[in-house]
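Ops channel
N.P.: pipeline sanity check, posting one input/output pair.
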């Protein structure tokens, strides 16, 4: 287990990349392009293409190869990884915000969530379906005006932890607890599934654009240095000069 870890975070606005996304398809694999074509809505297609292209560009810069030469392998639940390189990464996007995390020394999981008002039920009603007993109680104790912010803070922290282990939503969300308070530091409080993770993995909240919550989980026993970068366009990547 790594005691001290450095993590690079790249944040990007998918709205700003929407116009150039179709021209980035050249660097995607055949399976990625086929997946893009299956999206019903154009906005979802362009977001997927932009995310994958920028992810490939960032990895390519780190490995000194072309973005089309990046080859992904996939875990049992679909988490992508690099089979022949010791570079760990994870990607998340929600609405118009995307976050990419990379580390040369530790596995990680990242999540970003677009904060939105409930459509029918209160967020506490949804929490009662998925969250742990401790999380439901903590959310219930908050004033209703704070529950939306707290719900998404909790959800981002929980999903980041799941993605650390490449589980997606296959592990019931009530099998572990994180702190709910959106203004307190992120923390893994308990886990019935992997008790040893207490003290062997850490959670951090990440900076985001207004209206979003983001968190990262890292397999580390000590401090984690987070380097945050905002990508405003593809000009950062010489591979994409043809766009």
């Amino acid at each position: 287990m790594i005691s001290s870890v450095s993590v690079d975070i790249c944040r990007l606005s998918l709205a700003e990349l929407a116009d150039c996304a179709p021209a980035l398809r050249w660097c995607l694999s055949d399976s990625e392009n086929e997946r893009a074509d299956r999206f019903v809505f154009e906005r979802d297609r362009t977001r997927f293409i932009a995310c994958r292209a920028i992810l490939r560009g960032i990895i390519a810069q780190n490995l000194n190869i072309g973005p089309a030469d990046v080859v992904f392998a996939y875990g049992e639940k679909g988490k992508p990884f690099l089979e022949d390189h010791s570079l760990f990464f994870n990607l998340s996007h929600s609405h118009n915000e995307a976050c990419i995390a990379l580390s040369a020394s530790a596995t990680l999981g990242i999540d970003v969530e677009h904060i939105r008002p409930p459509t029918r039920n209160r967020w506490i009603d949804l929490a009662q379906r998925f969250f742990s007993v401790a999380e439901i109680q903590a959310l219930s104790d908050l004033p209703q005006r704070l529950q939306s912010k707290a719900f998404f803070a909790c959800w981002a922290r929980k999903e980041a932890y799941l993605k650390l282990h490449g589980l997606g939503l296959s592990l019931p969300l009530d099998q572990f607890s994180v702190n709910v308070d959106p203004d307190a530091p992120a923390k893994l409080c308990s886990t019935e599934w992997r008790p040893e993770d207490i003290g062997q993995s850490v959670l951090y909240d990440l900076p985001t654009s207004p209206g979003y919550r983001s968190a990262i989980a890292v397999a580390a026993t000590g401090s984690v240095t987070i380097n945050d970068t905002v990508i405003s366009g593809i000009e950062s990547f010489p591979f994409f000069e043809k766009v």
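N.P.: looks fine end to end. The two ends are 42 Å apart (CA to CA).
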